[in-house]
């Protein structure tokens, strides 16, 4: 059982130490309002309000009287986010309450960043607890922030778990746990039943694994607009017969990062009780190698009836997503969002910290950009560039799963997926990385959610909730 709701604010404000979160440019003004004793102490400690710096000022009895937290200057803030997360690990044990005034969005960033900084992956090794706890500011919705943090923790836990313990069957178990927690319905189609129920590409990609492929289908809510989330659940990707190098295979436990992210987002939506009808579809497979593995030059027929020539078995994610997208498109939702760790080209384009997305829906794109700024969850719009459509048309079949040449790989992958969404008017595709290569404030090295908080912030405007 996954304990993804473990990131919490302090249970009580009793004895909480006032914490003054200060920008470098307002430190002097703040000091002018303090006693000479405090001024001298802070200056003696060399505190300059750099990002992550702390200063603890004792009271008359030698206990912690107040604490100062550095938020840096304009340049530092422009180059990073969640500055308060750096402070959380630097402060001594105890309870703290933010005692300075901040804009509401900034205050929520501080509070969420503090919670996310407490995340550790403890399945295989005990980690020391974070001793400094934050009292949730009175003006914030404590439950909302804790539920957002829980969704992120779920995503991180799923990605961080190795494929030996997070194959398609275990991903199904995690989805069932989430559905049960929220009273959602869940249906799973497994193994040869995928062929019988017309999900041929999901079955083909996953059939070489010792753990059968499956399609996970969660539904929740009875009123409001309809939202479909489709997440790539490739629990490990060897590359198939076009086998990856050892270096490229090393991080492939994260190839189910799209599935992990939509499950984390689904938790946020259900826990917050948004007035919508949610459907989550996850094709869960392992792209393995044995005598039944699919081959280069095979031609597959998809659920939608489109034929696909296989020019690289390592371009398998778009195949399993295609069948799931086609299913969602048969009862068109008001908005469909696909999330996948799909292409290396996306990482070359925007690096590991930004979630590139594709959509023809201008209002959703505008709402998403605004939501990304509010949630401190950066996104960047990429084009469904129609002149590249011929690149995914091989001639011998309707579609090519891996166009030759290497140009515009993230765009051609997005165009491929869009071919399976012909009835749904509003569609967006996210090509995420799902991994934090080096530790950053609120984001330790390892699995990480990308785009989920931005989408959550965009949904009220995008769906008129």
Average pLDDT value?
Answer: 96
Number of strands: 19
Oligomer: single chain
Tell me the structural class: alpha/beta
Largest sheet: 9 strands, mixed
Q: How much is the radius of gyration in Å? A: 24 Å
Instruction: From the 3D structure, determine the CATH topology of the largest domain.
Output: Aminopeptidase
Tell me what portion of residues adopts beta-strand conformation.
15-25%
Task: Tell me roughly what share of residues is in helical segments.
Answer: 25-40%
Shape assignment? elongated
Second rung of CATH, namely the architecture of the largest domain? 3-Layer(aba) Sandwich
Whole-number count of domains: 2
State the end-to-end CA separation: 32 Å
CATH class label of the largest domain: Alpha Beta
List unreliable stretches of 5+ residues: none
Number of continuous helical runs:
16
CATH homologous superfamily caption of the largest domain = Zn peptidases
Pfam families: Peptidase_M17, Peptidase_M17_N_1
Keywords: Aminopeptidase, Hydrolase, Manganese, Protease
GO molecular function, one term: manganese ion binding
Protein name: Leucyl aminopeptidase
């Amino acid at each position: 059982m996954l304990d993804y709701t473990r990131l919490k604010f302090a249970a009580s404000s009793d004895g909480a130490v006032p914490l003054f979160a200060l920008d470098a440019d307002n430190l002097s003004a703040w000091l002018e309002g303090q006693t000479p004793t405090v001024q001298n102490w802070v200056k003696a400690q060399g505190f300059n309000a750099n990002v992550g710096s702390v200063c603890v000022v004792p009271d008359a009895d030698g206990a912690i009287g107040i604490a100062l937290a550095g938020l840096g200057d304009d340049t530092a803030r422009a180059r990073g986010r969640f500055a308060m997360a750096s402070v959380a690990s630097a402060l001594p044990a105890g309870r703290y309450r933010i005692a300075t005034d901040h804009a509401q969005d900034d205050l929520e960033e501080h509070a969420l960043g503090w919670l996310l900084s407490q995340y550790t992956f403890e399945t295989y090794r005990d980690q020391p607890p974070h001793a400094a706890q934050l009292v949730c500011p009175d003006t914030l919705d404590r439950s909302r922030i804790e539920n957002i943090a829980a969704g992120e923790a779920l995503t991180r836990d799923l990605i961080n778990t190795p494929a030996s313990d997070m194959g398609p069957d275990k991903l199904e178990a995690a989805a069932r746990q989430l559905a049960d927690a929220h009273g959602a319905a869940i249906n799973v189609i497994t193994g040869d039943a995928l062929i019988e129920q017309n999900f041929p590409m999901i079955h083909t990609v996953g059939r070489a694994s010792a753990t059968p492929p499956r399609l996970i289908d969660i539904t929740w809510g009875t009123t409001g607009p309809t939202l479909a989330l489709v997440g790539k659940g490739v629990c490990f990707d060897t590359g198939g017969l076009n086998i990856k190098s050892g270096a490229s295979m090393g991080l492939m436990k994260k190839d189910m990062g799209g599935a992990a992210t939509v499950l984390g987002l689904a938790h946020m939506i259900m826990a917050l009780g948004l007035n919508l009808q949610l459907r989550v579809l996850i094709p869960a497979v392992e792209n393995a190698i044995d005598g039944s593995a699919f081959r280069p030059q095979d031609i597959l027929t998809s659920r939608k009836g489109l034929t696909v020539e296989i020019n690289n078995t390592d371009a398998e994610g778009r195949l399993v997503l295609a069948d799931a997208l086609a299913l969602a498109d048969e009862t068109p939702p008001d908005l469909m969002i696909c999330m996948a760790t799909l292409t290396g080209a996306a990482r070359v384009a925007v690096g590991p910290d930004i979630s590139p997305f594709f959509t023809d829906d201008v209002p959703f794109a505008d709402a998403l950009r605004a939501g990304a700024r509010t949630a401190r969850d950066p996104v960047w719009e990429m084009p469904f560039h129609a002149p590249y459509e011929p690149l995914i048309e091989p001639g011998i079949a309707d579609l090519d799963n891996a166009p030759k040449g290497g140009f515009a790989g993230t765009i051609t992958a997005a165009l491929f997926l869009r071919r399976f969404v012909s009835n749904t008017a509003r569609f967006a595709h996210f090509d995420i990385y799902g991994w934090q290569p080096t530790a950053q404030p609120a984001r330790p090295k390892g699995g990480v959610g990308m785009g989920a908080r931005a989408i959550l912030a965009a949904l009220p405007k995008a769906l008129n909730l």
